[in-house]
Amino acid sequence: MIFSIFAVFATLLVVALFVDRLVVRRIRVKRLEEKALLITGCDSGPFKKFCFGFDLALKCLSSGISVFASCRTQKGMDALQSKAGMTDRLFAFMMDVTSDASVQKGFAFVRKMLKESQKDLHALVSNAGILGNSAFDDFLRVNDYKQVAEVNTFGAIRVIHSFKVLLKSSRGRIVGITSSCCRGHIPGTGPYSVSKHAIQGYLEVLSENNRQEMRLFDVDVIIVEPGFFRTSLVNAETIETTMASLWERTNQTTRLQYGEHFFKKCDPILCGYYVTVIGIFVGTETAVKLLSTTSSPHTEWVVNAYYHAVTARFPQRRYQVGYDSLLVFVPFSFLPPILQDATVWFIRFIMRLPRPAIMENFNRSACVPDDNGIELNPTT
């Protein structure tokens, strides 16, 4: 009897999943051509075909959807307009998400064009983001954290605050991007991880708990949580150069504590987490060169998740994008702490992470030098 009930339940569950995948998720929002989207962070960057915002704007335009595409630079705006060709559905404009005045100016432009075209703002895709400096916390300054948070966290909040009045009137949706770093913490990504934790918390305040706050106005809040993809953020050469400059600016006390051998060893390690396995066979010295190839080249997966989030009648509340997100970060986040610690220890072991110089022959006075020997990192 119990087995029969379980079998029926399992069958119904499988049928429901198939219906959801094959029917429900394919239902599109009606009359999308009468609506408009706002996408932030549409600059093409160093790798013109590897930019989520840029590619999403083009995909939506090809589907007949009007797009307000905010770019940080004139060069980025020109690149998008050139790629899109002659179309009256693209409204590209410059907007700096770190500036209140710039965002308000962008809001005035969007509201004016919506009124003239008699369209509603259907969705806001908060895509703008930067990586910032990546290294162990001892090599970073407070401003390194502020710089990244100003774009990834406060920039997103600033834009949502300004434009959500238009989304309330259209019963639209907000789509925000976070990161799998929020589930598995990668050493050396402090500023980026902190900013993504913060914006994820903000989006969940708006969307979770029975979809409170924005759900009161029938506004959906959707989170896209990708793994690592081959975009301008994951540029191994740039990260390597940045880390070298961080070492040069670091005070002498910290340099002596770690030793240059430690930093050089960690340099390629911190430039890519996939090298935990690759490094065993090719050595971590070449890991930095492999970052661009080990990160997923399928940036269209993130673009497709964005596109489904804005065009589907019944979008998912959260999109896990990428094999690493689904098979590594999500399972890792559900492990009990003792197994997480064991996993991290194993990764450190196979990566052959060196010990800081002062720990090789432990010297307490080197850890806490006297007043004359202390040299602090500036905060700016």
Can you walk me through this structure?
- The longest helix has 22 residues, at 190-211.
- Helix 2 (52-62) links the parallel strand 1 and strand 2 (66-71).
- The chain has 17 helices and seven strands.
- By secondary structure, the chain is of the alpha/beta class.
- A seven-stranded parallel sheet has the order 3-2-1-4-5-6-7, with helices on both faces.
- The radius of gyration is 23 Å and the shape is globular.
- The model is unreliable at 268-288 (pLDDT under 50).
- It has two domains: 25-233 and 297-334, NAD(P)-binding Rossmann-like Domain (Rossmann fold), CATH 3.40.50.720; 235-294 and 336-367, no CATH class.
Do you know the CATH topology of the largest domain?
Answer: Rossmann fold
Q: Please give the number of β-strands.
A: 7
Query: Spatial order of the strands in the main sheet?
Result: 3-2-1-4-5-6-7
Mean pLDDT metric: 79
Helices, by number, come to: 17
Which stretches are low in confidence, meaning pLDDT under 50 for 5 or more residues running?
268-288
- The percent range for helix content is 40-55%
CATH class of the largest domain, please?
Alpha Beta
- Give the helices and strands as they follow along the chain: HEHEHEHEHHEHEHHHHHHEHHHH
User: How would you sum up the major sheet?
Assistant: 7 strands, parallel
Radius of gyration, in Å, reads 23 Å
What is the total number of structural domains?
2
CATH level-two architecture of the largest domain: 3-Layer(aba) Sandwich
Envelope shape: globular
Question: CATH superfamily assignment of the largest domain?
Answer: NAD(P)-binding Rossmann-like Domain
State the end-to-end CA separation.
Answer: 69 Å
